[in-house]
Write a structure and sequence with these properties.
single chain; alpha/beta; Glucose Oxidase, domain 1; seven-stranded mixed barrel
Length: 388
């Protein structure tokens, strides 16, 4: 086993053991402390950028049908209820009922669906979202949807429930029974934080390279976030041993599941950096996943597209997808796209455990694939960092 493999295993083990990585929680803070220790061990000095965060802490989240209780999780960018909840009959979008039932594809948003439109219109007093598998082979269960509008919540309370509750819910719809939807939460004032590293180059007049990865998520997120964390750390290690020509900024941001809250905060304080940076490298979600062999590459222009494909050309990856140049990319790369910056982005193209509680080390992770991708992307980052 190579030294790189040993380090990658240690990274995934540590990240998984930190527990739930939701923004502003104990696991999120533990991860920040651990990242800082890793950075110091490589001779670099970490910086913490803290910002106030009003954390959502669910108290009681359930659908009550008679004496049955179906546990769920509310949308974090919608309204909530008190302890009494919302009482009424269930129905579909066309029905004159206070509580509507619908599907949402696992870990996707409803942006263009009729259900999303009903939510925007505030047509119902509460909504039940039954998680639906996106692809054959996806693991069922409760897989939370990201709160893209966390900073500007809207609509009624929406309770997400696992797909195995669908039969019980449909029977309640057919019978016309009254149900109760409770989405009761507390708000806790905490400090959320990004972990940053500023590596000095030989010529600081050159525009900097910026390497970003999200570090937060709904669950343990081993294959979702662990690959980006490992590649981010290994890039710091590689460049620490060989001073780059240009400055390199590293940002591991919190708030991914809340509409990229942490990266938004970073960019608000470094607005000119979006366009001024030489290139942004975005290390996104799921490229360490064992259950889907494909990856997705994204780049802002043809030159960077060629570079990123050259970087992986010797890897044994059966399927590589590419987001067309000019299309709004997925993940935090979209923030750079919206600001007209240059970027390269690495993602996994599908993960049947995405946002799932069973996304755990080691079963969810393809070690050989992630080690190969880390080797390729650290070399690519080195090439860009040493360009004059």
């Amino acid at each position: 086993m190579s030294e790189l493999e040993k380090r990658v295993i240690q990274i995934f083990e540590a990240y998984d053991q930190q527990g739930i990585h939701r923004t502003g929680t104990v696991g999120d803070k533990e991860n920040a402390d651990w990242l800082a220790e890793q950075v110091r061990s490589m001779g670099q000095e970490p910086q913490w950028t803290c910002f106030p965060h009003l954390r959502v802490d669910p108290i009681l989240s359930e659908l009550q049908i008679g004496d049955q209780k179906i546990e769920g999780l509310p949308f974090f960018d919608g309204a909530f209820t008190d302890g009494n909840g919302v009482i009424g009959r269930l129905g579909g979008l066309e029905d004159d009922v206070p509580i509507v039932v619908g599907h949402h594809l696992t870990n996707r948003n409803w942006d263009t669906s009729q259900f999303a439109e009903a939510r925007r219109q505030g047509k119902f007093k509460a909504m039940i979202a039954i998680c639906k598998r996106s692809r054959p082979g996806d693991v069922g269960g409760l897989t939370p949807t990201n709160a893209e509008d966390f900073a500007a919540p809207f609509g009624p309370p929406v309770l997400q429930v696992a797909d195995d509750a669908e039969d019980r819910i449909r029977k309640a719809v057919s019978s016309g029974a009254e149900v109760r939807v409770i989405a009761q939460v507390e708000r806790t004032e905490v400090e959320a934080l990004n972990v940053e590293v500023r590596m000095k180059g030989k010529d600081s007049t050159l525009s900097p390279l910026v390497v970003i990865t999200p570090r937060s998520g709904w669950c343990h997120c081993a294959s979702e976030r662990g690959g980006g964390i490992a590649c981010w750390l290994e890039t710091i290690r590689a460049l620490s041993g060989n001073q780059p020509e240009r400055d390199v900024w590293f940002v591991a941001s919190t708030g991914h599941e809340l509409g990229h809250l942490g990266l938004d905060y970073f960019l608000e304080n470094h607005r000119a950096l979006i366009e001024d940076a030489y290139t942004w490298i975005h290390l996104g979600a799921n490229f360490a996943a064992a259950n889907r062999p494909s990856i997705r590459l994204q780049a802002s222009d043809t030159e960077l597209k060629q570079l990123v494909f050259q970087a992986i050309e010797n890897l044994n990856i059966p399927s590589v997808a590419f987001t067309p140049i000019g299309s709004r990319p997925s993940g935090e790369a979209r923030n750079i796209f919206d600001g007209n910056g240059r970027y390269i982005s690495l993602l996994g193209d599908g993960n049947r455990l995405f946002h799932h509680p069973e996304d755990r080390w080691p079963d969810a992770v393809d070690l050989d694939k992630i080690v190969g991708l880390i080797g390729a992307f650290t070399k690519l980052a080195g090439r860009l960092a040493h360009a004059s």
